[in-house]
Each structure stands twice: as C-alpha cells, then as structure tokens.
Automatic annotation (TrEMBL):
One of its GO terms (cellular component) is cytoplasm. InterPro entries: Aldolase_TIM (IPR013785), Methyltransferase_A (IPR040072), RlmN_N (IPR048641), RNA_MTrfase_RlmN (IPR027492), rRNA_lsu_MTrfase_RlmN/Cfr (IPR004383), rSAM (IPR007197), rSAM_sf (IPR058240). SUPFAM superfamilies: Radical SAM enzymes. It is found in: Cytoplasm. This is Probable dual-specificity RNA methyltransferase RlmN. Gene3D superfamilies: 1.10.150.530, Aldolase class I. Keywords: 4Fe-4S, Cytoplasm, Disulfide bond, Iron, Iron-sulfur, Metal-binding, Methyltransferase, rRNA processing, S-adenosyl-L-methionine, Transferase, tRNA processing.
Amino acid sequence: MTTPLPLVFDAPRRGMPPRHLADLDSRERKAVVEELGLPKFRADQIARQYYGRLVADPGKMTDLPEAMRGKVAEALFPPLLTEVRHVVCDDGTTRKTLWRAGDGTLLESVLMRYADRNTLCISSQAGCGMACPFCATGQGGLNRNLSTAEIVDQVRAAAAALRDGEVAGGPGRLSNIVFMGMGEPLANMKRVLAAVQRITSPSPDGFGISQRNVVVSTVGLAPAIRKLADTGLSVTLAVSLHTPDDELRDTLVPVNNRWPVAEVLDAARYYADKTGRRVSVEYALIRDINDQPWRADLLGKKLHQALGSRVHVNLIPLNPTPGSEWDASPKPVEREFVRRVQAQGVPCTVRDTRGQEIAAACGQLAAEA
C-alpha cells in the first residue's frame, strides 16, 4: 500500500528568491517605498509599470526619476526568472517556455492561442510531490514551492509576449490562466492565493484578468479545497479525479490514501455551494486502466449524486511520457466512455490536446535543461 502523503499546504520559504514587487500587496508596497525615502504615490506608479505596462526593469520606467531607478531595482526587482528557451508547435500558437530561477531551479509554462481566448498554463511549484505515476512532473518529485512573484511573473511575461506579437497570430491579450502546470497549487496555497489576487485585481494591484477566467486545479487536497471555498474567490476549481473508485485511485493518485473519493467530492460540493461555480473534473483516460464502461457509469453516478448540474467532466486522452508503458484509450472506447457519463446526466467532453509534440501537454512538463 502506498504511504499516505503528509498534509503540507505551505512549505517554509527555504530557497525562495528575495522579496519582489509582486510578492507585496498595496499596503506592503507603500511601506517599502516609504522605507526607501520616496513619496507614497511612487508605490502605485511603480506597480502600474509592472502590472499595467508589463515592465519589470526599473531602468525602463521612464516616469521615475533616473536617480531613483537603481534604488527601486535593488529593493523591489531582484533577478527572478530567466528564459532558457521557447519551443513552439501548432503553427506557432502553442509555446512552451523553460525558465531558470535565480537559484538555478527550472520550471515551465505553456502559452496557448485559440480563436476566442489566449490561455497560459502556469506552474506553482518546481516539480510536484503528489507522485502520480502517469505524470512526468509527479515522477520527477518536488524541488520547491515557487514564490508569489515567480508565479506572477510567468503571467507578466506571457502577457507582454502576446502584446508584442511574439506569438503567431499577431498582437493579442492574455485572457485565461490555468494553474495546471508543474506542481499541486493547493500545496503552495498561501502563495497561490496571493498570486490569484495579483492576477485578478485591476491595476495598480494586478493584471485585471477575470476570476472566472482563472482555473485552480488540485489532485484532491480536501481540506484545502474547503479553505479555497472560504476565501470568497470565484475561480474555477478543477479536480483531477482520474477514476471514481478508491482501489484504483490509491495507485493513480496516491494522495487518495489520505482523502478518498467520497471526501474529495464532498469538498467539491462544498466549493460549489459556497461559490455558485461549476466544478471541473479532470479525467486522464488510460487504455485498459481506467477506461472500462463500468467506471464511466460509476463516475457519472457519483458526480451526479454529489454535484448535480454543477459539474463538467474534461476527458483527457493520456499524453505520453518518457518510459511509461501506459497509452491513451482507443477512440471508440473514448466515445463510449463519454456517452456513458453523459447518460448519467453529467456533461462530458474530450479536451483538445495541445503541445503533445513538444512535451507541453497535461502531465508532460518536466523542465529539463
């Protein structure tokens, strides 16, 4: 039997980068600016440059007196993330970026351009400690949590790339954020919540992206789901369920040994009740492992009982990972699975897989230099 994972919502700041503007809320920003001997209004002026104009280098903040820029850079803009490389596919509309943090830590984000939206998949940890065997990130283990600023700066960089026309399709605007990159977001909850505030608050406190366009995923940390519900945020909750029965889920999602399916779905119902938002259930369909007709029936039944009309199943054909013997289910099996879930009164669709050929799809991020 798999050893239950420890309950860790927030690891210490060990290995975190120095304080950055994006780590601070409005009150904290103003306090730092005052410590520097600058007028209070400079705090919002600097924040508008970062969140509104997407400028991260005080040397380019032309509305600051030149003599002040070095002091601001030292206090609020330490080196954070450096682009190692970009890899593109889908005619340039999917772009994976490998980042190196100041301590050498590697992480990845994926920018995807669609006809009706521009979505960024961001990482909240370097690696992941959830140990799901079909996920390259989980198999690599957890390096460390990312700081709030390291999470937020992935968003700033992508928004600037879109604005400047660096992604195929011409200039555009970042509209959607999904916490589905490297890591378990709810295991770094304090910093993820702070990042969500920066992402969704209007300038000068954030990028002004709608909370309804932000997805926070989890493998099922039930107490943390309830804590997220109590924050008053209205982001979309995505639960990576992958099978409706505890026997298999104990293996596919080891955290299930601590919080079994019933407890996860009870927490999801609490989230739906508190927020009024529909919960998304992620299900990676694996040939001969979790794609049986009876599992489709059981999934639909359990979700309908727990969440009624406030749930939607995203079926994800398994994305290949190095060394894995598992594979995606055949299309006829996939179609029958969808039909059976829908027959239980639960909406179910197959996710459009992007970035497979550049190892940028769900479960493939490994941040290899």
